């Protein structure tokens, strides 16, 4: 009988230990809420989120899972209610998203700019400050150009610039990759092609090969980022309280200072300009 009593005792101890472990896990889950942020690839691939999000979690105890896609896809995730926050960079699309009732608490957060990147030798002679003039030259020269073609904020900006340049036929060298900013830059580097990039991802990009910034400084290249909560009235499962804490934090003094402090090689990638 002694062995049987011993086994029963051990099983009872194991069951008690398991129950305590489950209770501890449940308590931890309650103590560490998490939100999903659907965002543009540039905030992820530039390294900004790796710098920003741990500080947000430290300040609030809220964990963040990022789904990094083009802005159009990120907004679609918000429309479906598959995210709690949307953090993107296409003001027209963001305003439409809010007007249609998909988002609330829309705020400006930060900005940088777009740049036209291409072979350092610049065979199409695009170098300068005029983005529309540069695109006209690319089309005329049938120069190799990699477009993201993914409905991202960068892609939307690129299409605006082609339209402003009055270019319908972009030339035989124009190719859409349907990819993020990093892969588009990799394709341009390997093919010696031109590409429109956000400066943040460009500064963090290591595989530059012969690429260089050729067009910058045009006021039309301004690149604004915005953040908003997915509307909990449309999607009751949205973690609205935690999502609002995220929005409030990134536009707070601490959040804005954290954004401003992110640098690569001594260069600041994003410039805070929150509306509070």
UniProtKB/TrEMBL annotation:
Q: Does the keyword Signal apply?
A: yes
| Residue stretches making up the PBP domain | 30-254
Task: Report the SUPFAM superfamilies cross-referenced here.
Answer: Periplasmic binding protein-like II (SSF53850)
| Keyword presence, Signal | yes
Organism superkingdom? Bacteria
Q: Which InterPro entries does the entry link to?
A: ABC-Tungstate_binding, PBP_domain
**Keywords, comma-separated and alphabetical:** Signal
Q: Which residues form the signal peptide?
A: 1-31
Annotated Pfam families: PBP_like_2
> What's this protein's name?
Periplasmic tungstate binding protein
Native species = Thauera aromatica K172
